[in-house]
Amino acid sequence: MNRVRVRAWVGSTVFLVLAPGIVAGVVPWLITGWQIPWSGAWILPISVVASLVILSGIVTLLDAFIRFARADGTPAPPVPTAHLVVVGPYRYVRNPMYLAVLAIILGQALLFASWWTVLYAGIVFGAVLLFVRFYEEPTLERTYGDEYRQYRSKVRGWVPRTDPWSARD
């Protein structure tokens, strides 16, 4: 495996642990203690729904990180990919990693019956919106130019498409 590929996999793994790992794992654990307050007949349906939401977020997040590493870069701004990543979940929505992190947080809010975690999810979403609008989108446009502008015109940022986008569209 060449140096660039190794750096991409190591960088993506470190970034996964440090960013989403803390935001969607450590902080919700600090808020909730991961204590399930449900009992009786409610525990099974709530646990199933919450677990599906959390697992869908984890799967989407891991898929996106793997795609960045395979493209010899990371989702971290200092070590981007050579080409815009527009495959997998990115064919449906421009910000699948942020949505996945929010799904993980909100799934925990449901599982642990925590309004504080819901409030935290709102704060995270607000911070992400500002970051995307004022840093990430301008940086992507400068870095990838027309490739990003075409993609942005066809794929919404926060509401997924019902059909997958293709660069041929």
Account of the protein in words:
With 169 residues, the chain is mostly helical. Helices cover 66% and strands 0% of the residues. The chain has one domain: Four Helix Bundle (Hemerythrin (Met), subunit A). The chain contains 6 helices and no strands. The chain is globular.
End-to-end Cα distance, whole Å, is 34 Å
- Radius of gyration in whole Å, from Cα? 17 Å
CATH class type:
Mainly Alpha
Reported by name, the CATH topology is: Four Helix Bundle (Hemerythrin (Met), subunit A)
Biggest beta-sheet profile: none
Provide the domain count. Answer: 1
Instruction: Give the overall shape, derived from the CA principal axes.
Output: globular
Instruction: Kindly state the number of beta strands.
Output: 0
Main structural class: mainly alpha
Average pLDDT reading: 93
Q: Uncertain segments of ≥5 residues (pLDDT<50)?
A: none
Helical proportion? Answer: 55-70%
CATH architecture descriptor name = Up-down Bundle
| H-E string | HHHHHH
Number of helices: 6
* Strand residue content: under 5%
